Amino acid sequence: MTTLPNCPQCGEPNTYPDGDMIVCADCGHEFSASAAVDASDEARVVKDSNGNVLVDGDSVIVIKDLKVKGSSIVVKKGTKVKGIRIVEGDHDIDCKVDGVAMSLKSEFLKKA
């Protein structure tokens, strides 16, 4: 059985073939299989809490106090973080906050 690609619009895996097109069961987006292959070659799109696309080197602002696991450090709301890097994984932003390297989730950041 061949594995169908995730929907390029919403990212969900619930897709099914319909003739020469692939349809997403969640959002209804239709796309061709060749377009799905081209889209998989592109870099992953990471968005902030407001839906703005983040890229390497952007500056962001923390939107809520974040406790750092395994430490007593708290990253305060309103902290500006410069020079972020987009990475794969659950915590999709690598950065340095006050000289300490850490990974953050983009959902707790907004573009500066």
Could you describe the 3D structure shown?
With 112 residues, the chain is mainly β. The protein is built from one helix and 13 strands, in the order βββαββββββββββ. Strands 1-2-3 form a three-stranded antiparallel beta sheet. Strands 9-6-13 form a three-stranded antiparallel beta sheet, with no helix packed on it. Strands 10-11-12 form a three-stranded antiparallel beta sheet, with no helix packed on it. It is elongated and about 55 Å long. The termini are far apart. The mean pLDDT is 86.
What is the secondary structure topology, with strand pairs?
Blueprint: E1 15-18, E2 21-24, E3 30-32, H1 33-41, E4 46-47, E5 53-54, E6 60-62, E7 66-67, E8 74-75, E9 80-81, E10 85-86, E11 93-97, E12 100-104, E13 109-111
Antiparallel strand pairs: 1-2, 2-3, 4-5, 6-9, 6-13, 7-8, 10-11, 11-12
User: Which secondary-structure class do the elements indicate?
Assistant: mainly beta
The percentage of residues in β strands lies in: 25-35%
Task: Please write the string of helix (H) and strand (E) elements.
Answer: EEEHEEEEEEEEEE
With helices defined by DSSP (H or I, 4 residues minimum), what is the helix count?
Answer: 1
- Number of strand segments: 13
Major β-sheet strand ordering = 1-2-3
**Average of pLDDT:** 86
Query: Main beta sheet, described?
Result: 3 strands, antiparallel
Quote the distance from N terminus to C terminus. Answer: 46 Å
Proportion of residues in helical segments? under 10%
Radius of gyration: 18 Å
Shape: elongated
The low-pLDDT segments are: none
Q: What is this entry, summarized?
A:
This protein has 112 residues and is mostly beta strands. The protein is built from one helix and 13 strands, in the order βββαββββββββββ.
